[in-house]
Amino acid sequence: MDESYKPKNKKELTRESIIGLGENSFKKNYYAQLQTKLVDLERIHSRTQALIATIPDILLISNDQGQITPLNPSSHTGSYALVEIMRNQILMTDLKQVIEVVSCTRVLSDYYFSMPFQNALHYFEVRVQISTFDEVLIMIRDMTERVNMEKKLRDLAEKDTLTHITNRRFFETELAQINNRNIEKLTILLLDIDGLKFVNDTLGHLMGDQVIVSASQVISRCFQSMGIVSRVGGDEFAVIVKNQLPETLEAALEKMNGHLKCLNELPDATFKISLSYGYSHHASGLVNTNFLFQEADNNMYQNKLLKESSTRNNLVKTLMKALEAKDYITEGHTSRMDTLATLIGQALRLPQNVMDRIQLLTKFHDIGKVGIPDSILKKPGALTPDEWKVMKTHCAIGERIANESSELKEISHLILKHQEKWDGSGYPLGLVGEDIPIECRVLAIVDSYDAMTNDRPYRAALSPETAINEIISCAGSQFDPGMVKIFCKVIEQHLRPQ
């Protein structure tokens, strides 16, 4: 009975039969255009899948009930980012609120968030758009690389590359923003490193950079919490201080001087860092930042003039201590040289002012070696040609140091010439014969004799007889021949053991 109701030759519902392909089609060849459209749709679907696979973003989709599911895990960001995002309940709550707004307004919306994972902070941009089928597409892009690059570019534009505090451009922009505004309790403080050019000329710019960095660290430590600290010049710093009374600023300056004192008393301190400063305070009303800056600059310059001479002398004394620490100028060395030079000067019947210069020269002639690296000064072997070029600069460095000191200025030209030789083969000027100052000719002999008869990093001490013979052999080339004769007489009469 039941079998009578079964249709005969029932056609199977297949893709081909539906669209009109094959002998079993429902409507053979009636839907050729449908077949073409379906192939096109399949091609579009394949392209879409390939496109989604290549998108470097995380794609999520939300239905009209707010259920969010992944559409694809990003191959670039990795599934770990997707897992962290889906696991973050606060983030998902915020995202659902954005989805509700987009569902109501049907307008593209942006959302930004940051999230730590993999030991770093990552930044993301979210774009939310609704489709015609009321599905909401969420595209999440990792913007970390771009954000970090923008930060680096901003730092390059606004920060000093050496000290990592804000630069002059940033400082001037801040001043322009507050100029002619009604402000209460605004102070501009200017600070200047004393003697930085002197340090650069004597110890080199690398040491000068260390001074700048050390000074910036002290200034930042004392004033960063009070305002904006900037480096506005090679050796100049500025601070914009807001909502502080002058008494508070004075206390901070006193604190800064305390930090500098501690820094200068460290055992490895090559020299003492000194800062001149001046400030201008605006109590209330419209502020003129140009006037404030000029007044602060004048006050700083006045402070600098009052301490400039003493600062330079202190720097010279500090450099002398640094040279003593390098074992290239010891009390025994200078006293022995002074004794021998005095005896030679007396034998030559030199006037007292020349004798005074010789005594100063025996003590300070090598002061320029404070600017020579220890790797060269204390090298046990022979110096390379490049190392000799560096070593020869100690004469010019010493001259610059001496010119900064009222006590040594008179012998600065002698310090420059103390390595000249009688035959003109010396340096740095190649002077010949009596063109070499007599003080330098005396020094050349006594320095060589003392160096040969005492231990040096590159050799052990020679006997007095060997050293005397060496000096005699160099008479007329390295040394003044007449001076060598006087030297030998002095040694014979006063210093040779009886």
Structure keywords:
19 helices, 13% strand, Alpha-Beta Plaits, five-stranded antiparallel sheet, 4 domains, five-stranded mixed sheet, Beta-Lactamase, 498 residues, alpha+beta, 10 strands
Structural topology:
Blueprint: H1 15-19, H2 32-54, E1 58-62, E2 68-72, H3 79-87, H4 89-105, E3 109-117, E4 120-130, E5 136-142, H5 144-158, E6 166-167, H6 168-178, E7 186-193, H7 196-203, H8 205-223, E8 227-231, E9 236-242, H9 246-264, E10 275-282, H10 289-325, H11 331-347, H12 352-364, H13 374-377, H14 385-392, H15 394-403, H16 412-417, H17 438-452, H18 464-473, H19 481-495
Parallel strand pairs: 6-8
Antiparallel strand pairs: 1-2, 1-5, 3-4, 4-5, 7-9, 7-10, 8-9
Series of secondary-structure elements, N-terminal to C-terminal: HHEEHHEEEHEHEHHEEHEHHHHHHHHHH
Helix % is 40-55%
Enumerate the spans where pLDDT stays under 50 for 5 or more consecutive residues: none
CATH architecture of the largest domain: Orthogonal Bundle
Summing up helix and strand content along with how strands pair, one would put the structural category as alpha+beta
Distance between the termini: 153 Å
The total domain count is 4
State the name of the first-level CATH class of the largest domain. Mainly Alpha
Main beta sheet strand tally, sense and closure: 5 strands, antiparallel
CATH topology of the largest domain: Hypothetical protein af1432
CATH superfamily of the largest domain: Hypothetical protein af1432
How would you write the strand order of the largest sheet? 2-1-5-4-3
Global outline: elongated
